Amino acid sequence: MAGGSSRRRLSAVLMASALVLRAGAAPAQSCIPSLLGAMSLAKFPVRPVQADPASAVPVTVLAPTPAARQPGTAQELYMQGLEDSSRLDYTDASRLFDQASDQGNSGAEIMLAEAYSRGLGVPEDYARAVLWYRRFVAAEPEYAIDVYFVIARLYASGGPNLPRDMSQARYWMRLAAQAGNIRAARWLEAP
Q1: Average pLDDT of the chain?
Q2: CA dihedral 111, 138, 13, 187 (to 10 degrees)
Q3: pTM to 2 decimals?
Q4: Average pLDDT over residues 10-33
Q5: How far apart are CA 140 and CA 164, in angstroms?
Q6: Which site from 14, 86, 151, 154 is most exposed, i.e. has the minimal number of CB atoms within 10 Å?
Q7: How many Cβ atoms from other residues are within 10 Å of residue 102's Cβ?
Q8: What share of the chain has pLDDT > 70, as a percent?
Q9: Rounded Cα gap, residues 179 and 59, in angstroms
């Protein structure tokens, strides 16, 4: 259970990193400051919300203004999807990622692939996950090393709407190994 939570957090961090790299940051730069800069209050205005007066501890929290909840550009849709995903609102996050991917946001494509492979906010569907992974790697070939491995694992295990297909699994594992994925090379060497 904890592993799944960690994988979701790692996926969100990787996608945020992909977003920053796509926006033009050099790979050697730290992605966290750039990501925080992209989420500045100027870009996403907030309004204070008072806690319930009956509560024992008065607290002021920040909540998005209605204008900030109506994203329009692919980048805004993607960022809002990440925010919804961090709040575990996967249904709304998947809807936003779908809209962002329609506008060409590759980060949204990988997030949709993850959503379909795990059934987060959308029905679990390995065939659709494979399509989204392939679409992502076509747009971001530098991530092929890991994406090919994930596609191979989906074919090796089979699942919702994707029959187990070891020839496809071997094909994708070979691509991952050729791209430098050590786990894929080990998988291919196993008896």
Answers
A1: 73
A2: 100
A3: 0.63
A4: 37
A5: 26
A6: 86
A7: 11
A8: 63
A9: 51
**The two three-digit tokens of residue 64, written as one number:** 């998005």
Q: Which of 55-69, 106-120, 151-165 has the lowest mean pLDDT?
A: 55-69
3-state SS record for the chain: CHHHHHHHHHHHHHHHHHHHHHCCCCCCCCHHHHHHHHCCCCCCCEEEEECCCCCCCCCEEEEECCCCCCCCCHHHHHHHHHHHHHCCCHHHHHHHHHHHHHCCCHHHHHHHHHHHHHCCCCCCCHHHHHHHHHHHHHHCHHHHHHHHHHHHHHHHHCECCECCCHHHHHHHHHHHHHCCCHHHHHHHHCC
- The residue type of 101 is S
Tokens of 144: 């092929």
Q: Which residue type is seen at 170?
A: R
